[in-house]
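Title: [Solved] VanZ family protein 3D structure

Original question kept below for reference.
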Amino acid sequence: MKKRNLIMVITFLYTGLTLYFMFLGFNRLDGYEEYKSAGYEFLLVPSGVPLNFPRFTFSWLYDFGNIAAFIPFGILFPLLNQINYKKFIGWFIIVILGLETIQSLAYLGTFDVNDVISNSIGATIGYVVYKVGFTSNLTIKKLIASSITAIILLVGVIIVSEVLDKRVSPVQPLHVIKEVTGTKPLTNEVPTFTVAGHKIEPQFNLYSNNENTTKTYTYTIEDKEELLFFLNIGIPDQEDFKGEVTIITDGKVIFKKNEVNLKEESETIEMPLEIPLYYEAKEMTIMITGNILLWDVGFTELKHWWE
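Solution (posted by the thread starter after getting help):
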């Protein structure tokens, strides 16, 4: 009986400490007005993985805490009331969903499904640890086995997270994507030229229009995620200062420059230009007229480490 009372006290104190950090810790009261002005926020779609490889950042420590802080619940609650895993994790998720909802409605944070997932993983690790070493009399040997189990499971979470995680790829030349109309940029023996007095030596491609018509390059990009395009743009000093470039995705113009824009922005424009494309698109078209040139056109995307 004394043992059960001790576990109840520990559970009560630890639950109180956890609730403090969920609702008052990390200066949540200071952010009350900001959360209130932004309105209720419910993030229902997972936006990342639970835990990456260790990094000396607050973000990583926060992610680690979201798992590790809930491991004790997977041990303490089954010790108080023997319960199978399905029932335990079911009630745990219901309670966490409720707490996350209250946190958002009270303007002390946001409802974040990522937190629910991480907290549930922590509780699951705790339950496995309970099964390994706490279902009968606790010994030093069982305590060591439980600790090793927790470490192995945390490492497993990290490994799975790293496998599932996607990161921004290095900049890749745009021409590595198949051009569907057969129009290709110049990639071999790319000539040098001068723009605004600066000698330009393209490294991997050159998009141009060698005729008096519009030249079009079309790429299929539906299998790409969170594309960010990079391009350099200009008109060679020795050419007539005229031309226009337009970039279209799925019929929507997302970028347009002509000789007037280039003249107005000649002193402020930074190269390479960045064009974000964070929504899903199936096709992208580059249309070039006149003497405007695009060079070293590339992109980054989210990719798994093995891709």
